[in-house]
Design brief:
By secondary structure, the protein is mostly beta strands. It has one domain. It contains no helices and twelve strands. The strands form four sheets. The protein has a five-stranded antiparallel sheet, with no helix packed on it. The protein has a three-stranded antiparallel sheet with strand order 10-11-12, with no helix packed on it. Strands 2-3 form a two-stranded antiparallel sheet. The protein is extended and about 80 Å long.
Amino acid sequence: MLYGIVGNANIGSGRYFANYQVGGIGYNGGSTIYLNGVGNPDLQWETLKNTDVAIEFALFNNRLTGEVAYYHKSSTNLLLMEPGLASSTGTGNIYRNLPNSVIENQGLEVSLNYKVIQGKDWKWTVGGNIARNQNKVKKWELGPDAVSGGTNDTRVIEGLPLGVNYLVRYYGVDSKDGLPIWLDANGNQTKTFL
């Protein structure tokens, strides 16, 4: 059994201070210096509390070996690149921590290996594994639409997996006019995309 607390500093260096760069559009024949990134002096590492428990075994004179492992990870003080700074800053994003948000990941994995043939000159081993992994947003201090995915069809909602799809249910096509039919929140058919 293992337990540890580690930090995730998976962000570029220097994100905690403002970054200026030389270049851009010149002025009066000279170079200019412009704001390339707004810093955050309060930026900290994301914290990951990790528990791992595993049992390894060997049976039948080591012909059958395997492992059963469980992990539980709880991430706090989450790192987020947040959009939405005013365009007058010259940059659109800033890294920040979410100290009141928690995301939990846990899972179980079973792996087995069996030595079918174990000869002097030839060996044949068959193996495989299966895993069950899940994550859940335990606490979230921002609204469900604060972080968007590719086409903005995902949400972050407490009690659900991270990045759950939030979509309008499609029913089919109306054979009379060829228009799509959707289902509203009550399961009724509609041609209005809600």
